[in-house]
Amino acid sequence: MEELRREEICCFVEKSISNKQYNDEFIFSLSSKTVKKVKQILYLDLSKYKGVISSHSVRHIKRGHPSDIEYICEITKILETFSKVKKSITRDTKTGASIVSLEFYKKYENQMVKLVKLKVHRDKRLELKTLFVKD
Fold first, then answer.
1. CB 87 within 8 A of CB 44
2. At 13, phi and psi to the nearest 5?
3. Global pTM?
4. What pLDDT is stored for residue 135 in this prediction?
5. 63: pLDDT confidence band, cut at 50, 70 and 90?
6. In what order do the strands lie in the sheet with 98-108?
């Protein structure tokens, strides 16, 4: 099942990169392991949340961190086997509104992958905003 999910995500990423007009979302369920770990660490209940990857976010990552694009295919694995998670709050530069994000960290061969997801309260979505390898 996980390999199938990985292939589906990789196809979505490829389509998003190859067609700039493509505007879609890939929605996936969070594993019970992820929900349980986040609740233990941050006391945040994500049981009704869905993960979302938009084609726009894929292109953002491709522009800013082209060598890290492959990690998008691993998103479900990263979320299930993260080594650290924390909540962060940033300001939207256009609206001034507070944006609450969850940052998931996972170690890969002595490199740290940082995965930032936007948490939107009203519709229970965690949307991928950026992903990159952190030194």
1. yes
2. -60, -45
3. 0.89
4. 66
5. very high
6. 25-29, 50-54, 125-134, 111-120, 98-108, 84-91
Find the radius of gyration of the CA atoms of the chain. 14
Q: What is the mean pLDDT of the chain?
A: 89
What backbone torsions phi and psi does residue 93 show, to the nearest 5 degrees?
-65, -30
**Alpha carbons 117 and 12: distance in angstroms, whole number:** 18
- Spell out the residues 6+ positions from residue 133 whose beta carbon is closer than 8 angstroms to its own: 65, 67, 68, 71, 108, 111, 112, 113, 114
> Residue 51 pairs with which residues in a beta bridge?
28, 126
Which sequence spans correspond to the domains of the chain? 2-134
Tens digit of each residue's pLDDT (9 = 90 or more) over 3-34? 678 999 999 999 999 999 999 999 999 999 99
User: Could you tell me the sign of the dihedral formed by the alpha carbons of 2, 5, 11, 16, in that order?
Assistant: negative
